[in-house]
Amino acid sequence: MNTKPEQASELKLSEFLCFAVYSANLAFSKVYRPILDALGLTYTQYVTLVALWEENDQTVSGLGEKLFLESNTLTPILKKLEGMGYVERLRDPTDERQVRIQVTKSGRRLRDKAVVAVSDLGTATGLGPKEFSRLQKEIVTLRNSLLQSADHAG
């Protein structure tokens, strides 16, 4: 919210930035759901694979940092993706404490399907390429500022 109301009765849900972001996330889910259902993936599984398609052979901890997920949340996702045949989890030969994640051949084939499946999602936003890029950067700045604020508070 941008202003500080004098009374609780002045609070309007429509003016909360956090609610705008939350409800936009719900709207994204509605658009993504049928596409991801056809691919047999949840959104979290999908973004995990996108991060691995971008950079294969990552450690679990490094991947978790990229995805803003704790290891105890990410590990079950990776186990499920491994069971589906899309990734392999292997101990790092130079440091047995580290587990590395690699995309399998089947996972690479899924990438080709996913690229086609999500190709029209940009138009669902109603934004042009410049607007889309600007908004994405602004949201990343917002996220980073919030995380920095939370780190200082905690």
From TrEMBL:
Segments forming domain HTH marR-type: 14-144
Q: Please give the superkingdom of this protein's source.
A: Bacteria
**Where is the protein situated, by its record's location annotation?**
Cytoplasm
| Pfam families listed in its UniProt record | Staph_reg_Sar_Rot
Instruction: Name the principal localization, coarsely classed.
Output: cytoplasm
Q: Name one GO cellular component term.
A: cytoplasm
The UniProt GO MF terms for this protein read: DNA binding; DNA-binding transcription factor activity
* One of the protein's GO biological processes: response to stress
Q: Which UniProt keyword terms apply here? A: Cytoplasm, DNA-binding, Transcription, Transcription regulation
**Signal peptide limits:** none
Q: What is this protein called?
A: MarR family transcriptional regulator
Kindly give the Gene3D superfamilies that the UniProt entry links to this protein.
Winged helix-like DNA-binding domain superfamily/Winged helix DNA-binding domain
